[in-house]
Amino acid sequence: MIYKYSRHSGLFLLLIITTSLLSFNVTGDRHVNDFSLKNVNGKLVSLKDYPKAKGFIIVFTCNHCPFAKLYFPRLNELNREYLAADVPLIAVSSSDTVVYEDDTYPKMKEKAKKEKFGFPYLFDEQQAVAKNFSAQKTPHAFVIWKEQGKYVIKYSGAIDDNGANPEKVKNHYVANAVDALLNGKEVSEKETKSIGCQVNFRK
Amino acid sequence: MSYSRIKLFTCIACLCLLFFTSNAQYNNLHIPDTISGTTFNLNIKDTFMQFLPGNQTITAGINGDFWGPTLIFRKGDTVHMNVHSYLNDSTTLHWHGMHLPAVMDGGPHQVIPPGTIWQPYWLVTNNAATFWYHPHLHKMTEDQIAKGIGGFIIIRDAEEAALAIPRTYSVDDIPLVLSSRSFDASNAFTTTSPYGDYMLTNGTMNAQVGLPKQYVRLRILNAELERGYNLGFSDNRTFYVIGNDGGLLDAPVAVTRVPLLIGERVELLVNLGGDAVGDSINLVAYNSSQPFGFPGSEPSSTGPFGSLLNNVDFKVLHINVTAATANAITALPSKLVSNTYLTAADATVTRSMNVTDGTPGTGIPFYFDHTPFDLGTINKTVNLNAIEQWTVTNSNVFGHSFHIHDIQFKIISRSSGAVNAYESGWKDTYYLPVNESVTFVAKFSDYADATHPFMYHCHVAPHEDGGMMGQFVVTDPAGIAATQKDPADFTLYPNPATDRLYISFSDPTMTAYYVRITNAVGRTIYMLPRPQLAGGIDMSHFAFGVYFLQLTDEKTKKTITKKFIKE
Q1: CA nearest B149: which of B179, B128, B121?
Q2: Do domains B344-475 and B490-566 have the same CATH topology?
Q3: Considering only A95-99, B77-81, B363-367, which range has the smallest mean pLDDT?
Q4: Given this model, what pLDDT does residue B359 score?
Q5: What's the half-sphere exposure (Cβ side, CA atoms, 13 Å) at B65?
Q6: Measured between alpha carbons, how far is B181 from B58 in angstroms, rounded to an integer?
Q7: What does CATH list as the number for B490-566?
Q8: In this complex, which of B86, B115, B360 lies closest to A3 when CB atoms are compared?
Q9: Which residues contact B499 (CB under 8 A, 6 or more apart)?
């Protein structure tokens, strides 16, 4: 009935605020900071290490999440396709490793080896990069573009619209966004809802 | 066309669409697997399931994708649960309807952190009936039940086994868990309204099942977030209620409709012997024109309490009649079991509570007696073995589903008139409509524990999450009071340990009330309520490193922490 408890009204308000902020930021071309995170090969990776890159596909993912697992082969495909066009893919794990032993750095190394990752898989131990991007779920993809020395978010959300059945995908959101940007066009769908496991931020 | 007409037209169009789409294609009813025996391994995890075309829906399941296995218990067995949570969030698992020690109950206090194994165990003393298990983490119950965490428990006993009633699981004895869900544009569950747009029967949309041409037993559970069901068959045939929440009735009760509120179970016998093979019949929720306050009677199809299934009749299950089985039950038993119920005269303590607050337009939730639930407050203390009479009065604005842990009770009066014959058996949950007082009598036997409380609450998920809950402890006045002195000490051996860790108490009468093992970074690995420690604690699967064992002493309830190493 009409008498809903306060938690939800609070949540609603929060939702309204965050969605309005997000949409404001997207239309106002929200940009993110460069970072320096440890890759599974032990080396530090930053965006400035890619002087030729026009932009990046940044995917927040993790080992343990069943929905993230569905996308590992697709991350390799996206990287293969767009690395050649100077839009490399970088995967970042910002999962709380106190809660998830599966997402610890040694397990990330194992996963990258087993799944033959052709892209960097970075350990965001402090969760600072996920917070800077406002990553919500695993997987949560961002397409960022270099504009006047800044990294501007051009797309945020799901990788595509079907997790378990790649052959049934109708909208390749990330690929569509990168294709549009490479052709000098506006991204038609700038934001979708990322679905998967919640990124739990440590307090 | 006026606005209201447009709205009416849209509603009708929606309903037609729903009707036609639901007719267009049936999906075979999912029937959960069973687990029998005395050890039950339950793995709770985040997963996903295909409900609608397009993207999958993120769900959570136990040993599966949505809704868990049916646990078959035998009365008299001691059952051991290995609950392993792989969830992102903490959770709890409550054994709804079970009579057991409070520390095993899985209420809001028995929080299972992510990655932890919780091992409660208890002697099954409940009668043969249909129970269930579900999360009970305060303020998170709605979200976690919505994701699909839960399952049936079926208890079997000698009295039930002696009766000529259907009991072949998934053949003539069918579990049906009723709930509904709504989806957002990316096919994710949304609980913006607690009333879903899509009926899910055992997690199946537009469910159909083939049932044999004979008497069939349906064990129905309302596992909704908020909706009530007024169940009947599409040809208005008479069917028979044979069991309530906590056991079989004395004799079958003939009905054409039976209401089932959130958390309640009912066992039905329906005769398909008069139907032709190939005939179809529907189990229907006759939810239109329910009185105000019946959850789901709201007229809105959208908004915070809207749903396409509100205030309409809708299909719950499409039944196709198939050939009779070899050992078909073809007659209705005239008697079931002999119950000895408590009466008002047995009660030595009388309590009454009111449903309060829930002020329209202010967002104030419902409470009992103006007291929001507080984990640190014990609202009532009950003496061990007391027979008590509880009256809950709802002069407030909306209906509720009252549930109490630990006990099965007998409803002795409803202020609106006589207690319905179909709810005359052992109950743990009942419908509390607007402007009604309901009184039950129950005995609080066997399990005294001054530390861990049991809950009583409204089972409407947003209501209990909002604070319409209280807690009581059962205490033994004759028992030894907790002393002020320090507990006896203990040692861990071998240390370092490899396969098993043993505990040696300096005082042989000392027993453990609770053992919790955490690793070096504070992550909880094991939660062991009243562990049986003679055989040691299995740590073969532990990673190498330093761990801490916190042991709470049974007598003093004081906790001592010891360090040990696994190599």
Answers
A1: B179
A2: yes
A3: B363-367
A4: 73
A5: 14
A6: 13
A7: 2.60.40
A8: B360
A9: B538, B539, B540
**What domains are there in chain A, each with its CATH number?**
30-198 (3.40.30.10)
Question: What one-character-per-residue DSSP string does A97-147 give?
Answer: TTT-GGGSHHHHHHHHHHTT-SS-EEE-TT-HHHHHHT--EESEEEEEEEE
Contacting residues of B for A19, CB less than 8 Å apart = none
The number of helices, as runs of H, and strands, as runs of E, in chain B is 4, 41
Among B16-30, B180-194, B277-291, B303-317, the least confident range: B16-30
Distances in whole angstroms, Cα of residue A54 to Cα of each of A30, A46, A146, B290, B439: 17, 14, 6, 62, 72
Question: Which residues pair with residue B517 across a beta bridge?
Answer: B526, B549
The Cα–Cα gap between B467 and B366 comes to: 7
Give the tens place of pLDDT for each residue, B248-266: 999 999 999 999 999 999 9
| pLDDT tens-digit series, residues A20-52 | 344 344 445 799 999 999 999 999 999 999 999
As a whole number of angstroms, the distance between CA B248 and CA B165 comes to 11
Average pLDDT, chain B: 93
CB contact under 8 A, A7 and B466: yes
Residue B541, CB half-sphere, CA atoms under 13 Å: how many?
Answer: 6
Tell me which CATH code domain B344-475 carries. 2.60.40.420
Mutation target among B45, B48, B111, B142 for the A interface, most CBs of A within 10 A: B48
Closest CA to B386 of B341, B430, B340, B342: B342
What are the residue boundaries of the structural domains of chain B, listed by start?
A: 344-475, 490-566
Judged by DSSP in three states, A177 sits in: helix
**What is the C-alpha to C-alpha distance for residues B498 and A111, in angstroms, rounded to an integer?**
28
Chain length of chain A = 203
- Contact between B183 and B198 under an 8 Å Cβ cutoff? The reply is yes
Query: Where do the DSSP E strands lie in A21-126?
Result: 31-32, 36-39, 44-46, 55-61, 89-93, 121-123
How many other CB atoms sit within 10 Å of the CB of residue B495?
14
Question: In this model, does residue B508 exceed pLDDT 90?
Answer: no
What is d(CA B519, CA B543) in angstroms, rounded to the nearest whole number? 9
Inter-chain touch B185–A193, beta carbons under 8 Å: yes
B299 touches chain A (CB under 8 A): no
Residue B309 Cα distances to A4, A16, B192, B315, B511, angstroms? 19, 27, 15, 10, 53
- Say how far apart CA B110 and CA B104 lie, in whole Å: 8
Residue A27 CB: number of other CB atoms within 10 A? 10
Closest residue of A to B116, CA-based?
A99
pLDDT of B518 over the 70 cut? yes
Residue A203 CB neighbour total at 10 angstroms:
3
Bridge partners of B524, per DSSP, are: B518
- For residue A82, what are its two tokens? 């767009």
Residue range B334-389, pLDDT digits in tens = 999 999 999 999 999 999 999 999 876 566 799 999 999 999 999 999 999 999 99
The whole-angstrom separation of Cα A86 and Cα A70 is 25
Q: Which residues contact B533 (CB under 8 A, 6 or more apart)?
A: B502, B503, B512, B515
Residue B248, SS3 per DSSP: strand
